[in-house]
Design brief:
The complex is a heterodimer of chains A (809) and B (113). Chain A is an alpha+beta fold and 809 residues long. In chain A, the strands form 5 sheets. An 11-stranded mixed beta sheet of chain A has the order 1-25-2-3-6-7-8-9-16-17-19, with helices on one face. In chain A, strands 4, 5, 20, 21, 22, 23 and 24 form a 7-stranded antiparallel beta sheet that branches. Chain A has a 3-stranded mixed beta sheet with strand order 15-10-18, with no helix packed on it. In chain A, helix 3 (81-108) crosses helix 9 (187-202), helix 6 (131-144) packs across helix 9 and helix 17 (613-634) packs across helix 19. In chain A, 53% of the residues are buried. Chain B is mostly helical and 113 residues long. The longest helix of chain B is centred in the last third of the chain and has 29 residues, at 84-112. The interface between A and B is large, with 43 and 42 residues.
């Protein structure tokens, strides 16, 4: 009896320990997680870090000094190139290890290993679009380049040196929540991360929707509603700029082809808000006589942030800026002589080819008048539950056939039975561009650096202390026939292939234009004089026009006025259409609640300021109106289509009062534009009332827009609350609910270079650190922090709070 | 006192070892320092309970206050607890339950031998 009791006790204790050591569903292993000795408590950091810390690092050649400033930015001082990038890898992992692990898993389709089978379809999708395939090609290119090989390998070694000295109680908290361990970092992870940027910035497309529209409405209506150039535009390269090259012949347009995709029946509108602004003002227009450069890339906002600030100081370089955790060097930054920045180019670099198989075996496909072999790539996905799933992806010479007939696509706009031709599958060495930009001393260096760049295409803006400014919409662009890839393409015809590339020298660029500034906001790169087709639709021009309006009327510009401009929330779209909307409302037919709302929007000053109620009403109204115009024909049809652009809709509202599209074909009577404006206004009031209660403070714009910064893995409690700040997707301060300016920087060039900047997050990825989200409040208010750009390793600088020494082992 | 012994030894050991050493220590100590006839299972349970629980409670409170409560609120929200004090209490309680059950097990083993 006593023995049974003892045995029973042992079993109960063992079962209890086992249960508390195991992750059950989404609950972390409670014993391990709550233990103050090894659990989450160990991740809580004090706001007074130790002044001096030493680490012994294997593989380091000489001693490296890392000074951390009061914003937790590392300033790395190394005596050779190898050590410099090793230290960058080390310190980035020190602050952001989990983020790097998670992003790599996300990119390579390995999330199921740590979160379980719920991520299986996502993993499968990432693999089917060939992100890993592209990364394998990219790392090959990097390792063939001896310079980049040294950089990438040293960076990896630094990350691994950090991982090796970590004990489980010091793992970042997310590892503890999900109950897994960090794994060795491989150079290909850096390539995966860069391909992930291409997915983010050049992975959207609507070829399937456009083909459905073409099929339903025919070419005339399609061209009318989806023109190849907007009505209103102020392109990046100032109109009138001379192209200094002899254009190559453009491939002939083949006979019309209308694809026959099978697809799901959903409708998604094109998302606005992933974009960016940059501008550089020449010394002739600034108070200092030297250029000022400004950049604010708009991306998905997360904690930890996508950016990590760093200063790299080595024998041939001294550069400060933001890096991407997982990739060596600085991506947007400045050195002693020059500064540069980027915004996205919305060129069409992703196309779909309809595949004709020989037979059900799917081993050969018809192309160029003959049967060609399909290549197979087997993807093996492991899940946390211990299952192994294999997935065979078929490739034509275009690229992967993402989904075959009978397979259910993960995203609705993926056409089934089509091969994907995508720039991300090209062999490329983008890091080289950043490595060289970090060291650029003049305009020639800048142009040489960006000549190595493929994707995602960026508007590279540049300014230096010799008073040169310039901008280059740049990347590897396929040389297309007019409208090639606007619709699904025929994968059996050679004439439908991407046949060659636009040479780098033919990419649009401008240096020191007469107007005294260069700028970009994701709009069209050029006017119609440019000889090549880059795509039929770029981001709406609103931000671009506003920036150029402000810059062309400004003189004696200062860093403060640039900072102020980054926060501008003026709505061009309201300037264009609000008067027409207001004039069309039958005021006498409004009830009291509608009347109150109408007066508010009528008197609105057209700025999306945080507490403006007029902004909320206008924003909802504008969207409801365009739905009222097109919903009957483009949504309620059972076929996946899309709306015409905002530019086209605006043009229609202002200039086509009798357009047949206003009529709702679901009703017996004929609707006019005026009817729709009145109807959509009433819907707006109803909708806001339903969402936010009766007219009042809850209708304020910031509460309707609901901007917040969530945790990268959406862990509750680790994100921010709703942020009270100005701006909207279409304004310079381009804010959506979870995207917006992910970094704001203003650089004043000159002999004494100065810069200020911040991002909505913090340098540390640890939710238990005071530097996890310390910049969020200042970002919300539009403040910028002065960036500490050290000339030498000055450990006594008043802003330095911690001195880390990496010693050889 | 058995409780003090468990508290001190388990506290020191937990700094270097996996968390489940907080089950091993009460088993071992309640085995060695109990008399199968004179002592009670209740004594073993409460010594383990308080010895481990107090360690967890005090250390988590120490971290909570020295780090300006920076993480407690976030984690409480993550696991959907209404207050940080419940999280701190839960921390102490989980340690205590492990310690208590391990303690009584140690005593039962002693009685069986």
């Amino acid at each position: 009896m006593k023995k049974i009791k003892a045995l029973f006790g042992i079993l109960i204790t063992a079962a209890l320990v086992y249960a508390l050591n195991t992750k059950i569903e989404s609950i972390p292993p409670l014993g391990k997680f709550l233990s103050p000795f090894v659990g989450f408590w160990q991740n809580a950091e004090s706001s007074n870090p130790k002044k001096v810390v030493n680490f012994n690092i294997k593989g380091l050649k000489e001693e490296v000094t890392i000074l951390l400033d009061d914003n937790m930015v590392p300033h790395i001082f190394a005596k050779n190139k190898h050590d410099l990038y090793l230290a960058q890898g080390y310190i980035t992992a020190y602050h952001r290890l989990w983020q790097m692990d998670f992003q790599t898993r996300y990119a390579s389709g390995r999330l199921s290993e740590v979160v379980g089978k719920q991520a299986l379809e996502l993993d499968r999708y990432q693999r089917r679009i060939g992100l890993g395939y592209g990364a394998e090609k990219a790392i090959e290119a990097m390792l063939e380049d001896p310079q980049m090989k040294e950089v990438v390998e040293a960076y990896s070694a630094g990350i691994n040196a950090y991982i090796q000295q970590l004990s489980p109680k010091n793992y970042p908290i997310e590892f503890k929540i999900l109950n897994y361990s960090p794994e060795e970092w491989k150079p290909i992870n850096s390539a995966l991360l860069l391909k992930l940027m291409t997915l983010d910035l050049a992975g959207a497309n609507d070829d399937l929707q456009m083909t459905n529209i073409l099929k339903k409405f025919g070419p005339d209506i399609t061209r009318d509603l989806f023109p190849n150039y907007p009505y209103k535009e102020d392109p990046i390269i100032p109109p009138g700029t001379i192209w200094e090259f002899n254009p190559l012949p453009v491939p002939a347009v083949p006979e019309e082809f209308i694809g026959n995709p099978l697809s799901a029946f959903y409708q998604k509108e094109k998302i606005e808000g992933i974009g960016s602004n940059n501008w550089a003002v020449s010394g002739t227009k600034t108070a200092s006589g030297f250029p000022i450069l400004s950049n604010d890339p708009h991306l998905g906002l997360t904690l930890p942030s996508i950016w990590y600030q760093v200063q790299l100081h080595g024998p041939d370089v001294n550069v400060y800026g933001v890096s991407l955790p997982g990739a060596p060097s600085v991506i947007i930054g400045m050195n002693n002589d020059a500064a540069w920045g980027v915004t996205n180019v919305g060129s069409d670099v992703l196309d779909w080819y309809q595949v004709k198989f020989k037979d059900a075996k799917k081993e050969e496909y018809w192309w160029d008048e003959k049967w060609n072999p399909i290549t197979k790539r087997v993807e093996t996905i492991k899940t946390r539950e211990g299952k192994t799933v294999t997935d065979t992806v078929l490739y034509t010479h275009h690229g992967p056939i993402v989904y075959l007939d009978g397979q259910k696509p993960f995203t609705e706009n993926t056409p089934i039975g089509y091969a994907m031709r995508w720039i991300a599958h090209e062999k490329s060495n983008e890091l080289k561009t950043f490595y060289l930009l970090n060291r650029a001393q003049n305009y020639t260096d800048y142009r040489n650096a960006i000549s190595h760049y493929h994707s995602p295409a960026q508007n590279f803006i540049y300014a230096d202390s010799k008073n040169d400014i310039g901008i280059s919409p740049n990347g590897k662009f396929p040389l297309k026939w007019q409208e090639q890839g606007k619709f699904l393409l025929d994968g059996s015809k050679k004439s439908h292939d991407w046949q060659s590339w636009i040479p780098f020298e033919h990419n649009p660029t401008v240096k020191n234009p007469a107007r005294g500034f260069v700028s970009s906001a994701n709009q069209f790169s050029t006017d119609l004089s440019y000889p090549y087709y880059l795509g039929f639709e770029f981001a709406p021009t609103d931000r671009g026009i506003r920036i150029n309006n402000l810059l062309s009327t400004s003189n004696k510009t200062t860093a403060d006025s640039m900072q102020h401009m980054q926060m501008d929330s003026y709505a061009m779209i309201a300037e264009w259409i609000l008067p027409t909307l207001i004039d069309s409302v039958n005021v006498e037919l409004l009830n009291d609640a509608q009347k109150t709302a109408f007066d508010k929007v009528k008197n609105w000053n057209k700025f999306y300021t945080a507490d403006e109620i007029g902004a909320s009403i206008f924003d909802v109204w504008r969207i409801k109106l365009s739905r009222a115009i097109f919903q009957d024909e483009f949504v309620e049809t059972g076929t996946m289509m899309r709306y015409p652009s905002r530019d086209r809709t605006t043009h229609m509202i202002l200039n086509e009062p009798n357009s047949p599209w206003y009529d709702n074909n679901k009703t017996p009577q004929i609707e006019t534009l005026k009817d729709l404006i009145n109807l959509s206004f009433k819907q707006t009031v109803d909708s806001l009332t339903k969402l936010k209660g009766d007219f009042g403070d809850e209708w304020q714009w910031w509460k309707v827009r609901n901007t917040h910064v969530p945790h990268l893995a959406r862990i509750p409690g680790f994100g921010t609350k709703t942020l009270k700040t100005d701006g909207a997707k279409s304004t310079i301060n381009a804010l959506g609910s979870t995207n917006g300016p992910s970094w704001r920087v203003v650089v004043e060039l000159g002999s004494d270079l100065k810069a200020k900047g911040l991002y909505p997050g913090g340098q540390s990825g640890n939710p238990g650190s005071p530097w996890y989200d310390n910049m969020v409040d200042a970002w919300t208010k539009g403040e910028l922090y002065e960036l500490l750009f050290l000339k030498e390793a000055d450990a006594n600088h008043p802003r330095i709070i911690q001195n880390l020494t990496l010693k050889t082992k | 006192m058995l409780f003090i012994l468990i508290l001190v030894v388990a506290f020191i050991l937990q700094i270097f070892t996996p968390w489940w050493v907080s089950a091993i220590v009460p088993i071992v100590f309640c085995y060695y320092f109990s008399h199968p006839k004179r002592d009670s299972s209740r004594r073993a349970f409460w010594s383990g309970f308080a010895g481990i629980g107090a360690g967890w409670l005090l250390y988590s409170l120490y971290i909570h206050f020295t780090t300006d409560a920076i993480l407690t609120g976030k984690v409480a929200e993550m696991i959907q607890l209404p207050s940080i004090w419940i999280l701190i209490a839960a921390t102490g309680l989980i340690g205590a339950v492990v310690g208590g059950i391990a303690g009584i097990t140690g005593f039962w083993i002693k009685k069986a031998m």
